[in-house]
Specification:
The chain has one domain. Helices cover 28% and strands 35% of the residues. The chain is globular and about 35 Å long.
Length: 93
């Protein structure tokens, strides 16, 4: 499942620093997949989604990892688009 996620200035303003479930990228994913998502977790290495009791994982592109590092260190960031390729995964819990 390929998704293009637009991280807006609003997502950046409302996103929480060092919070994988409510950072700017997580908020943009929630907005993009409204109503379908049960949970989201965004890390510099990957993004994990849970939808319809299924897990999906996408590798975080370098541009996203750089954005997270800058955002979490309170450095200036700009809105951008992130292309994610989600693959079905399995929960360890």
């Amino acid at each position: 499942m390929n998704k293009t996620i637009k991280i807006t200035q609003k997502n950046i303003f409302e996103g929480e620093i060092a919070n994988p479930q409510n950072c700017a990228i997580a908020r943009a994913i929630k907005r993009n997949m409204k109503g379908k998502l049960m949970s989201v977790s965004v890390l510099p290495s990957h993004v994990t989604l849970r939808m319809d009791n299924k897990m999906f994982v996408a590798k975080m592109p370098k541009s996203g990892a750089n954005f997270i590092k800058r955002f979490d260190h309170r450095k200036p960031v700009n809105s951008f688009e992130l292309n994610l390729n989600f693959k079905k995964s399995y929960s360890l819990v």
